Amino acid sequence: MITSIWAWLRDPAHWSGADGIPTRLAEHLGYTAIVMVLAAAIALPLGLYVGHSGRARWLITAANAARAVPTLGLLFALSLWLGPKLSGDLAFSAPSIIVLVLLAIPPLLAGAYAGVEAVDPAARDAAKGMGMQPAQVLRSVELPVALPLLLSGVRAALLQVIATATIAAYVGLGGLGRYLIDGLATGDYAATAGGALLVAGLALAADLLLAALTRAVVSPGLTGKYRGADGVDIPGRTDVAFER
Amino acid sequence: MTWIQDHLGLIGSLAVRHAVLAGIPLLLGLVVSLPLGWLAHRYRRLAPVALAGTGLLYTIPSLALFILMPLLLGTKILNPINVVAAMTIYTIALLVRTVVDGLDSVPKDVDAAALAMGLTGLRRLLGVQLPLAIPVIAAGLRVAAVSNVSIVSVASIIGVSQLGDLLVDGYNRDIPGALWAGIIGCLALALLFDIVIQVVARLLTPWRASTKPAAAGAPA
Amino acid sequence: MHRSRSRRAALTLGLSMASVLALTACGGSSDPLNSSTTSSSATSSTTGATNIVVGSADFSESVLLAEIYAGALQAKGVNATTKLNIGSREIYLKALDDGSINLIPEYTGALAYYYDKSFAETDPTKVYDGLVGLLPASLQVLTASAAEDNDSINVTTETAQKYSLKTVGDLAAHAKDLTLGAPPEFKDRPQGIPGLQQTYGITFKSFRPLKGAALVNALKNGQVDAANIFSTDPAIAANGFVTLTDDKRLFGAQNVVPLIAKSAATSDVVAALDAVSAKLTTATLSDLLKKTDIDKQDPATVAKEFLSANGLG
């Protein structure tokens, strides 16, 4: 079986054309990018606001409850409902993107909220005492301190979106999910397994990239680097990750 | 909505199968994750490997895992075991990290006190560390339960029926009632699982009842 | 102290888990993982009576036919259950192979193509005879029905008028501007896109893998310009789609036929299924599908009505 997957992955015919791996990979990354930008634009400000103000905490609870909605069901419902209302490709892409955005919001929201929430009240008070405005406190103190947890939320959301973007193929879209659905429809298990491998590989690459990014942008004062530790184990990073 | 009223029996039997297909892996996954998590907690060098390895399992698309399970296990293609095995893998992916976090959350002085009282090895783990880790583990279990209930619905694609059948049938024949029944059924099941886990966690940690309510699934 | 607490904790945990399992198990049949959901009779293997599991593909006509087969068998005292919506041919034939199911409604031409990718017969009798020779030793097809459900290429009336389309061949000049919608497997099947290319010289601008109601909606809303919809699909008439004539007979003959594991084909079973096939015509099938797909009735109900109206159940 492993040899047939390898053969499938190496077959030059699978590396060109509209159904080729580069095209499908680009489509997959395209959906992922659109979804992450939209979800982050919605969830991060909200999460920071809730964490900063302590108001509207029900948003976090509601977002967590929303994780129970079966993604496939939501996708089907939206496709049937929105499909006739939209024209062209949007009829297929809009439902998928909405579903994936909804999927990405809870971890992003939880990460941003938990990050700000975890800020030491003393640090916040000190910033206020120095005469900082609320917006300044958020930008200069809360945000940098919240960054590790916030980014771990981003990481959880990103991995989930990459893995789940495959279902878009079920409603007629492209992406790496095509190999899974088409492989299933035609009994081509090498294609299914190869597609799954590509998705897992993409997720791994994204995970490593984000880990590197986290190391680059998080203040050394938070990572323990100043003590000479290697800084890989960011405090609290795990707290949000299990939220997936 | 008359569709739902006319098909309550079908919805009920599918919901039961859904609960079994999502619930058993939760228990199996917990049983496997406890020793794995303990190892990663006890031997810190193992932790990054164990956490990254199990965490990556979660990125395998469910569609692919369901389809490939019969090949990996050598089972019959329509066997529900395929779904149970796949869901157990996802549960482990979520729970190992949770178990590590839970054991890490045990206060060092409590652990030291237990050691000083002569509790060692398994007795300290079962008597002190694990009970104190229950709140965190339960929070992770709640996330896994919700995730399982949602993912199991994909199993219709390989002919193992549960509430996902309503989603697929509703989509294929354009029946909104069936779609809604599937979605609401999943939500209700997720809620039921969530309540059961919270109640069990509360019962297992009687010392917490007097202080404050159990932490929610959110880091709230 | 610690010990008593941990013992109590373990006990509580055990009891709670047991109660969760009991809770989830007591609502349904004794074996909640028993794969049958639509039929009440259990697949027990205690007696020597024949047990037949009727499978179906994941589209409503296949589900309906499986219900009809199961109902007809039950009426003759055969213990028949259903295992519906399994998936595409490539999946359910594996299930037939490993004994998960014993019987499934099939289509003569498509099944023959599955076993022989160069199968070229188009005459119904020759297709059937050819199919018999292609089947693996463990499987057999019973008498085919007159009912035929073929692939068919459909366009909206507007598209048909715009390009003056009557036959599939007429598409050749315009296909480069058009999008084709069809189930995913159509892309690689010999009578699918490769067949359209070889037989008609048609290459569509793009391909949109869709099926069922979603495909019908996509054609109706102009998201695809041509769609491969099963010829018995009532949505064709309901939406006024124009079916293009398959003048070069690419899609061959597709008569509905029971495909059964030889081990399950006792004389009772064969007699019951032959009686069903004798009553099935394309018009009947279209009528029945209108009830399941347009009126949203349950396939099981529609199957029962058909069986009792024809003295089969």
TrEMBL record, chain A:
Its main location: membrane. Keywords: Membrane, Transmembrane, Transmembrane helix, Transport. Residues 25-210 form the ABC transmembrane type-1 domain. It comes from the Bacteria. SUPFAM superfamilies: MetI-like. It is a multi-pass membrane protein. CDD domains: TM_PBP2. It is found in: Cell membrane; Membrane. This is ABC transporter permease subunit. It comes from Nostocoides veronense. Gene3D superfamilies: MetI-like. The chain crosses the membrane at residues 29-51, 58-82, 94-116, 157-181, 193-218. Belongs to the binding-protein-dependent transport system permease family.
From TrEMBL, chain B:
CDD domains: TM_PBP2 (cd06261). It comes from the Bacteria. Residues 15-201 form the ABC transmembrane type-1 domain. It is a multi-pass membrane protein. It is found in: Cell membrane; Membrane. The chain crosses the membrane at residues 20-39, 46-69, 81-100, 132-158, 178-204. Keywords: Membrane, Transmembrane, Transmembrane helix, Transport. The keyword Signal does not apply. Belongs to the binding-protein-dependent transport system permease family. PANTHER family: GLYCINE BETAINE/L-PROLINE TRANSPORT SYSTEM PERMEASE PROTEIN PROW, OSMOPROTECTANT IMPORT PERMEASE PROTEIN OSMW. This is ABC transporter permease subunit. The lineage of its organism: Bacteria, Bacillati, Actinomycetota, Actinomycetes, Micrococcales.
UniProtKB/TrEMBL annotation, chain C:
InterPro entries: ABC_Gly_betaine_transp_sub-bd. Residues 51-308 form the ABC-type glycine betaine transport system substrate-binding domain. It comes from the Bacteria. Residues 1-24 form the signal peptide. The keyword Signal applies. SUPFAM superfamilies: Periplasmic binding protein-like II. Keywords: Signal. This is ABC transporter substrate-binding protein. It comes from Nostocoides veronense.
